[in-house]
Design brief:
One of its GO terms (molecular function) is hedgehog receptor activity. The chain contains 44 helices and 24 strands.
């Protein structure tokens, strides 16, 4: 502790002008002045570098020049551009300190701002938590001991890591690049998922289990594919219910179905790949060939309501029927008439009765011959057409009402909602207006196509695989779409829009959507490189410029992102649309954010006062914990988000977490090595970006310059951080000190220099406000006039200076706080309102590029056709033969689902079991007829028995037992179907084999897809073998239903809920079942999406809370951070509602991203707040001053990466990615730099360190112990010397030659002693007052000098005697460091104190 008193004497030569007293509010407290002066004096005398003491509180801070006082010769030093981040801290600290104390000093003129404090004094725990902990141990401060201990431990390891990286920078960089390049190779094994079930189906959930069961039963590929065509009028108000529209539709579809493709040396037509109804096997080759050629493809079209629909069915070449001589096409085919004509000829006992029964059951009658013609004048229009004779166009609306029928009317009913859209009906339900027509061409699936041609001559010359089958299908579908497009561009189609769409087109779109745009990614990365280089480039200082390290950092982050993605590929984490479109840019933005924080800290360091091998360690020590905190928060948040079972979201979360970990490793392990290389370049004085060139120096200022570039000279700045200065060329000055009346307790020291030739003779002297300012700054330099903006200084403008001088003080004003809090409340209320507008859903139109045919098709389909199909699937572990009644009840229960299309009678369409039953009933009736007339007996049948009767006999004798399959006694004991409609359970699977083989058209129309496939058994009347093979028990069946009225996600989710409830009810009754279809595949995710998203957000926020609470040991700070993050998520949801963005898996991903990005906006500010010293306002300003620039740079670089998404051809990417991410960054800046700092200033957590002596800084810490050389058994502290009078040295006072000499006993080095001395310092100065002694000098006269005294002027001699009561603590060093560090300490003390080496041999520690 130091107490100082001063005595002042004046002995004027002639007259002494009396100086008026300084205002009380401007006078610093004498005790603090003396303490500060003595502390600095003792530190200087000890030969160590002590941190500058703090300025006086703002309320008693630097005063303006009082009237009559000497004018200062120099103004307070302004730091150079390289130290710009700390240049503005003076104003901030002073303003904040004044705000904490109720206002700044008031008075005459405006004084220059006081010199800023070093971060070590005002942000102690951020700079050195161990020092802060030592302050607590000494009782000089109170605070959070546990938090400081944890941070000190982490900082110690980070410092050691930084020093290690500095020593081995080259090795570390080489190994790191080698490892990263190795992981980049993993990108070759990356897999991209674009299928719907791979993106949206919940992993491990009910739907995934159901899809897996379906795949095991049916195979991997889909059962069928579809080619769709939609026609709409170009005039939206027009109707298509006229013959011209339908005929135009016919021409386009007819041309499209006629396309062929040449693949694998084979021509593929629609007939080769389409789905066509099955036909029975008649065991007559030429008859089977006729049916094969005549049987058409299944085409669902509104043209089937008219005769013109037959023109789509072909065949391509007319079929010749022997003996009839007819060339048959569907335009002239009457199936019943053909059969009747064939009966008149001998066809070798052909089973015409079986064929007629087959046609009757299928509803095959006259084909298209009795349907009306759209154009009755067509020469091919049959005479049997209903309007042929009248020659009038049909009532198209009436014909389309209720749907259309194909050639097999019973099994080919096309629902009205499937073929006609945008209808308007009259009171009777007849269609009066229609705005859309739709045709669906049904194709085989790739698996079916592969199996169909596996053992055929068509592909015998190639290795036929399922992949080749898929190529055939996709190529034909693309050719089909191209033909539709060509027809639309023709001259015949002018009034209509016709669009084609297929599953191949959808797969192409999803694949293209999932592809990474290399051009956009490269453009985004180059823009970040450019921004990093420009923002860190310094025109005025080519050596301290950081453009090279910034560009190297962006390149490092880019390589790290690629390596992280390669590592994800090696782990088997697949890529999808969200990962390829978001992750590379997001990871780059977050990584560059950390890079800017490190470069910001690196730029602030003053390398002249730091050992070269510790510089990198200090950078990591100060910024490493912030990076560690934000990165771990992001990792935990992303891993927490991975609990959402939707694959697209889970994959994104896992990849983002891995990339954040890779970025963390790169920033803490690799980038410091780059910093070490850049530090070596700076110390060598080499140019930034041109490290091989040495920077030339300016002859005027000695500063470095860019080659071939000359800048106007700027006033010299001090190169310092808080309270640290860099020496300039020494100047000879005269110190003039006098005491201020009336109490003579304060002194004014004037520095006079020789008057330049251009100096006016009457220029007033300039003065330094108090002794403290003399102690805190280099007395031979001063501040640059802040009002003078030289070109070089304007170029050195920085975001930190903006934050310190303008932005942070603005936020501290009470009106701004009130307005901001009101605005926050309004924003949160608006967000809640916007949240109510967010709906669930993801339309296919959102993920298809606009202004394409596919987008127009999907838009028309979603607008006019809300039609889907679904299946009710029954599973194994169920006794089908004995539970037939339950199956009927299950089928009938779907009557209660309003969206299911009913048949003409108001009931449900038949399903496989009812068709099976009806077929058996028909066979039973035929047997009963033959039994009644004696054609069949118990033992045999006769030649007059019908084919159906013989089949019934064979079925009735089946026992259902493998060991005893036949029992003829059952013929008159059992019935195929009992009176209750139940099929004989014992022979159920024998009957099933017969039905599926002999009623193939019904079985195909049932869409039952029975698995295992029933055994094949073809009935032959002349075959006396009675045994019918028994099929295996069923494990998979389908019940088809058609759905309509599903135009919105809400309608679809309601349907899903109703169907799921129905299925669950029968599951409880013992029927294992589940629904299947497009609505369940796409939209079931929305049933639990909000709950899963809410859970993921809670987990992410909880993870951030735990990380912040553990690493900062501050629960209240963690609560405020989580509150800010939750507010950002709520605001983002509100923005989504305002933009009309629907909630799906991808927006859910972005909501999780909001937590990760928000961490960077809040955690840095929160940590800067709690590690600062002072009141809340002051700590808020210090936090903004330190972190405003890194936060802005990080946000801008992230925005640059996101900006590339704005140029995507996918509207979905623009709306769902760019808009949302842009809003997220804007909300992050608003919350992180406006709302959150103000919230901290109002209810922020307590500071970690609360000093006892000063309110806004810690007490000046003791300097580190100096090693002492022990001499022959005695420990002697040598004489403490100071520079001789007149010797100039930076950051030191002119002191007396010595203070005292201290000697101790030989064994005293084992303990610590306190010694009290009272040295007396006498300063005698003389000055010559100017003629205008009452004038004061403002900052504009900062460059003037005091004129030398002349003989005609009076001389005032001031003699000041100061006695300091100094208490000196002597700490002898540890024995282990005495000899090792002796030479280094001598060199350090010689550099700091300017004394000879031998004079500081055994220097002790003084405070």
């Amino acid at each position: 502790m130091v107490a100082a008193t001063a005595r002042s004497e004046q002995s004027p030569s002639t007259t002494t002008p009396e100086s008026p007293p300084a205002p009380a509010e401007h006078r610093p407290p004498p005790a603090e002045e003396g303490a500060a002066a003595a502390t600095a004096t003792a530190a200087a005398a000890a030969g160590t570098t002590a941190a500058a003491p703090a300025p006086a509180p703002a309320a008693a801070g630097p005063s303006p020049t009082p009237p009559g006082a000497p004018t200062p010769l120099t103004t307070p030093p302004t730091p150079p551009a390289s130290a710009a981040p700390r240049a503005s801290s003076a104003g901030t600290a002073a303003a904040a300190s004044g705000a904490c104390r109720g206002g700044a000093g008031r008075g005459g003129g405006r004084a220059p701002p006081p010199p800023p404090l070093d971060d070590l004094l005002v942000r102690t725990s951020w700079c050195d938590a161990a020092l802060a902990l030592a302050q607590l141990d000494k009782g000089k401060a109170s605070g959070e001991r546990a938090a400081l201990w944890m941070r000190a431990w982490l900082q110690g390891h980070l410092f050691a890591l930084g020093c290690f990286l500095h020593r081995h920078a080259g090795k570390v960089l080489f190994v790191a690049l080698l490892v990263l390049a190795t992981f980049c190779v993993g990108l070759k094994s990356a897999q991209v998922h674009s299928r719907v079930d791979q993106l949206w189906v919940e992993e491990g959930g009910r739907l995934e289990r159901e899809l897996e069961y379906t795949r095991r039963a049916l195979g991997e590929a889909d059962a069928s594919t579809h080619q769709l065509v939609i026609q709409t009028p170009r005039d939206e108000g027009a109707s298509l219910l006229h013959a011209g529209a339908l005929l135009a539709h016919l021409d386009v579809v007819r041309a499209a179905v006629a396309v062929t493709v040449q693949l694998f040396d084979t021509t593929w037509r629609l007939k080769d790949i389409c789905y066509s109804p099955s036909i029975p096997n008649f065991e007559e080759n030429y008859i089977d060939q006729i049916f094969e050629n005549v049987m058409p493809c299944a085409i669902i079209t509104p043209l089937d309501c008219f005769w013109e629909g037959s023109k789509l069915l072909g065949p391509d070449y007319p079929v010749h029927i022997p003996t009839l001589g007819a060339k048959v096409k569907w335009t002239n085919l009457n199936p019943l008439k053909i059969v009747e004509e064939m009966r008149n000829f001998d066809f070798h006992h052909f089973p015409f009765d079986t064929l007629e029964d087959y046609m009757k059951r299928a509803g095959i009658s006259s084909g298209y011959q009795e349907k009306p013609c759209l154009d009755p004048s067509d020469v091919e229009c049959p005479e049997t057409a209903s309007n042929k004779k009248a020659g009038q166009s049909p009532d198209i609306g009436a014909e389309l009402t209720g749907g259309c029928y194909g050639f097999a009317a019973k099994y080919m009913h096309w629902p009205e909602d499937l073929v006609v859209g945008g209808t308007t009906k009259n009171k009777t339900g007849h269609i009066q207006k229609a705005r859309a027509l739709q045709t669906v061409v049904q194709l085989m699936g790739e698996r079916e196509l592969y199996e169909f041609y596996s053992d055929t001559y068509k592909v015998h010359h190639v290795e036929w695989t399922q992949e080749k089958a898929a190529i055939v299908l996709e190529t034909w579908q693309r050719r089909f779409s191209e033909e539709i497009r060509r027809q639309l561009n023709g001259e015949n189609i002018t009034a209509y829009n016709i669009y084609a769409f297929s599953t191949a087109t959808l797969n192409d779109i999803l694949s293209q959507f999932s592809e990474l745009s290399v051009v956009k990614m490269v453009a985004g990365y180059l823009s970040m490189l450019l921004y990093a280089g420009v923002s860190l480039f310094r025109w005025h200082d080519p050596v301290r410029s950081q453009a090279g390290i910034g560009i190297a950092g962006v390149i490092l982050v880019s390589i790290t992102v690629a390596a992280g993605l390669g590592f994800c590929a090696l782990l088997g984490i697949a890529f999808n649309a969200s990962t390829t479109q978001i992750v590379p840019f997001l990871a780059l933005g977050l990584g560059v954010d950390d890079m800017f924080l490190l470069t910001h800290t690196y730029a602030e360091q003053n390398s002249s006062n730091i050992k070269s091998d510790e510089h990198t360690g200090i950078v990591l020590k100060r910024s490493g914990l912030s990076i560690l905190l934000t990165s771990l928060s992001n990792v935990c948040a992303f891993f927490a988000a991975a609990i959402i079972p939707i694959p697209a979201l889970r994959v994104f979360s896992l990849q983002a977490a891995v990339l954040v970990l890779f970025n963390l490793g790169a920033m803490l392990l690799v980038f410091p090595a780059l910093v070490s290389f850049d530090l070596r370049r700076r110390r060598a004085g080499r140019l930034d970006l041109l490290c091989c060139c040495v920077a030339p120096s300016s002859s005027d200022t000695g500063s470095h310059m860019w080659p071939c570039i000359s800048l106007p000279p700027a006033p010299q700045r001090t190169n310092r951080r808080r309270g640290q200065v860099v020496p300039e060329q020494p100047k000879k000055l005269q110190a003039i000190t006098r005491a201020l009346p009336p109490d003579r307790q304060q002194t004014v020291t004037v520095l006079a220099s020789p008057q330049p030739a251009t100096q006016l003779p009457n220029a007033p002297e300039c003065w330094v406000g108090s002794t403290r300012e003399l102690l805190n700054t280099d007395p031979e330099k001063g501040y640059i006039n802040p009002a003078t903006c030289h070109m070089q200084e304007c170029w050195s403008w920085s975001l930190t200076r903006l934050a310190a001088k303008h932005y942070a003080p603005l936020l501290s004003k009470p009106p701004v706080k009130v307005v901001s809090m009101v605005m926050l409340g309004f924003v949160l209320a608006s967000s809640v309102w916007g949240l109510t507008k967010v709906t669930d859903g993801l339309d296919l139109t959102d993920i298809v590029p606009q202004h394409t045919d596919e987008h127009a098709f999907l838009t028309a389909q979603s607008r006019y056709f809300g039609f889907y199909n679904m299946y009710a699937v029954t599973q194994g572990d169920f006794e089908y033969p004995t539970n037939q009644k339950l199956l009927y009840e299950y089928h009938d229960a779907f009557m209660r689902i309003p969206n299911i299309i009913k048949n003409d009678d108001g009931g449900l369409p038949e399903f496989w079991l009812s068709m099976f039953r009806d077929w058996l009933i028909g066979v039973q009736k035929a047997f009963d007829r033959d039994w009644a007339r004696g054609s069949i007996t118990q033992e045999k049948w006769y030649s007059n028995a019908s084919d159906e009767g013989i089949l019934g006999y064979k079925l009735l004798v089946q026992t259902g037992h493998v060991d005893n399959p036949i029992d003829k006694s059952l013929v008159n004991q059992v019935r195929l179907v009992d009176s209750h409609g139940i099929i004989n359970p014992k022979a159920f699977y024998n009957y099933l084999s017969a039905w599926t083989s002999n009623d193939v058209l019904a079985y195909g129309a049932s869409q039952a897809n029975l698995r295992p496939q029933p055994r094949q058994w073809i009935h032959a009347p002349d075959d006396f073998e009675l045994k019918i093979p028994k099929s295996a028990p069923l494990v998979y069946t389908q019940l088809p239903f058609d759905l309509h009225g599903l135009g919105s996600t809400e309608h679809i989710t309601n349907l899903i809920g109703q169907v799921r409830a129905l299925c669950q009810k029968f599951e409880e009754r013992g029927l294992p079942n589940y629904p299947s279809g497009i609505p369940f595949l796409f939209w079931e995710q929305y049933l639990g999406l909000r709950q899963s998203l809410g859970l993921a957000l809670l987990c992410a926020l909880a993870a951030v809370f735990l990380v912040v609470a553990v690493l900062l040991f501050n629960l209240w700070s963690a609560v405020l951070v989580v509150f800010a993050l939750a507010a950002m998520v709520l605001q983002l949801l509100g923005v989504m509602g305002l933009l009309g963005i629907k909630l799906s898996a991808i927006p859910a991903v972005l909501l999780i991203v909001a937590v990760g990005i928000g961490v960077h906006f809040t955690v840095h500010i929160s940590m800067g707040f709690i590690t600062s010293i002072g009141c809340r306002d002051r700590r808020m300003q210090l936090a903004l001053e330190s972190l405003f620039a890194p936060v802005i740079h990080g946000a801008f670089t992230t925005l640059l990466g996101v900006l590339m998404l704005a140029f995507s051809e996918f509207d979905f990417i623009v709306r769902y990615f760019f808009y949302v991410l842009f809003a997220l960054i804007a909300l992050g800046l608003l919350n992180g730099l406006v709302f959150f700092p103000i919230l901290l200033s109002l209810i922020g957590p307590r500071a970690e360190v609360v000093p006892h002596e000063y309110p806004d800084r810690i007490s000046t810490p003791s300097p580190p112990p100096s090693p002492v050389r022990v001499r022959s058994g005695s420990c002697r502290v040598t004489k403490i010397s100071t520079p001789r009078r007149g010797h100039s040295h930076s950051n030191r006072l002119h002191r007396a030659p010595s203070l005292t000499t201290i000697t101790e006993e030989a064994n005293s080095w084992h303990s610590t002693h306190e010694i009290v001395v009272q040295p007396e310092l006498v300063v005698e100065t003389t000055y010559s007052p100017t003629q205008n002694t009452s004038a004061s000098c403002d900052s504009s006269s900062s460059h003037s000098s005091t004129p030398p005294p002349s003989s005609s002027q009076t001389h005032v001699t001031t003699k000041v005697t100061a006695t300091a009561h100094v208490k000196v603590e002597v700490h002898t060093p540890r024995p282990g460091v005495i000899d090792r560090d002796g030479n280094k300490s001598r060199q350090s003390r010689h550099r700091d104190s300017g004394s000879e080496p031998e004079s500081s041999d055994s220097m002790g520690r003084h405070s």
